[in-house]
From TrEMBL:
Protein name: Calcineurin-like phosphoesterase domain-containing protein
A Pfam family it matches: Metallophos
MF terms in GO: hydrolase activity
Domain of life of the source: Eukaryota
Database matches in InterPro entries: Calcineurin-like_PHP (IPR004843), Metallo-depent_PP-like (IPR029052), Pantetheine_PDE (IPR052963)
Segments forming domain Calcineurin-like phosphoesterase: 1-88
Length: 336
């Protein structure tokens, strides 16, 4: 069996307790009733110490654990100057994974190939019309990454360069990926960031309409498509995280799944579903054919996406009226 989860955020005590409540496996790998693996699609913890504690706990509960880094994992604000920049912290996290026996590279388990994909977001990923009827805080104000991460000078001011850098980290695994493709009947790729904009609600539905500018990567979608290029129907799955929206849908022959633990306050408000089904079992001697219920993917599985429609959803309009005043109906610009 292969279970998937993202956005554990175990800096929250409630989330760390959720991890510790998972059953500890009995004996060495495979000693129980089969082999259980867990895929963790990023955002484990903000500090390296909490990260290591979390991954150690997961290794005690699963026969194999796979991981790819998320943005919160690379934050430096609580590390006390421990790292020069976020790249140095990335190296430290990957070293910790190696010490703990956590997989960060491709591997075949039975008939299933599991391939982690490094990625980062870039603003040009967003191709849909902006909402200009409300005053929206800037990306720098809304997204803590711009302050909590630090990058080398040649990458810090260009998000496409950063996204390309992370994508190229996957090149070192090209030979291993090809080997996994040869051995596997089915393949699961996974990333932290979003590979397609259709996997996020339209801007008019979002409390922060500019969210699509800081969630995804075109490089990521191209790379995973190349890996799944000859997959038969039902044999290709990609798991992602980051937005905290539960998701399960099939787009152009690939199944896309997001199963986030997310923040305690989000679970209490039932924003993204419940936690009773987590971690989600996506594979049991074959991909689970059942599409699991998730509010947003259920909606888009039944309704056509309308990116040209920028009229705010009622709940978003109410939110902006409460906190920012009535809509301003700003003049549309050529880039809108």
């Amino acid at each position: 069996r292969v279970f998937v989860v993202s956005d554990l955020h175990t800096d929250y005590p409630e989330n760390m307790e959720w991890v510790r409540r998972l059953a500890v496996r009995a004996g060495p790998p495979g000693a129980g009733e089969g082999f259980d693996a867990l895929v963790v699609a990023g955002d484990v913890a903000e500090t390296r110490d909490n990260f290591a504690r979390t991954m150690e706990a997961l290794r005690a509960r699963f026969d194999a654990v796979f991981y790819v880094p998320g943005n919160h994992d690379l934050w430096l604000r609580r590390e006390g100057g421990r790292y020069v920049d976020s790249m140095e912290k990335l190296t430290a996290l990957l070293d910790a994974c190696s010490e703990l026996g956590v997989d960060t590279g491709p591997r075949t388990i039975g008939d299933l190939g599991i391939i982690p994909l490094f990625s980062w977001y870039h603003k040009s990923f967003d191709k849909e019309k902006d909402v200009n009827s409300v005053r929206v805080p800037s990306l720098e104000m809304a997204c803590k990454d711009f302050h909590a991460c630090q990058w080398p000078l040649d990458l810090g001011s260009d998000d496409e360069a950063l996204a390309l850098y992370f994508d190229k980290l996957n090149d070192k695994n090209n030979d291993a990926i090809e080997e996994v493709k040869k051995k596997s009947k089915q393949i699961l790729t996974f990333s932290h960031f979003v590979p397609r904009q259709e996997l996020c609600p339209e801007k008019r539905m979002l409390y922060y309409p500019n969210l699509p500018k800081v969630i995804g990567s075109d490089y990521l979608e191209r790379r995973l498509r190349a890996i799944h290029d000859n997959a038969k129907d039902g044999a290709a799955c990609h798991v992602f995280g980051h937005t905290h929206f539960c998701w399960d849908s099939v787009v152009d022959g690939i199944r896309y799944v997001q199963a986030p633990l997310a923040y305690p306050r989000e679970r209490k408000r039932r924003i993204n579903g419940g936690q009773g089904w987590l971690p989600f079992c996506v594979y049991r001697d074959g991909f689970n054919p059942e599409i699991y219920p998730a509010i947003w993917s259920d909606y888009y599985n039944k309704n056509r996406r309308e990116p040209e429609n920028t009229q705010l959803a009622p709940w978003v309009a109410k939110y902006f009226s409460k906190y920012y005043g009535p809509p301003v109906f700003a003049k549309q610009t050529e880039s809108s």
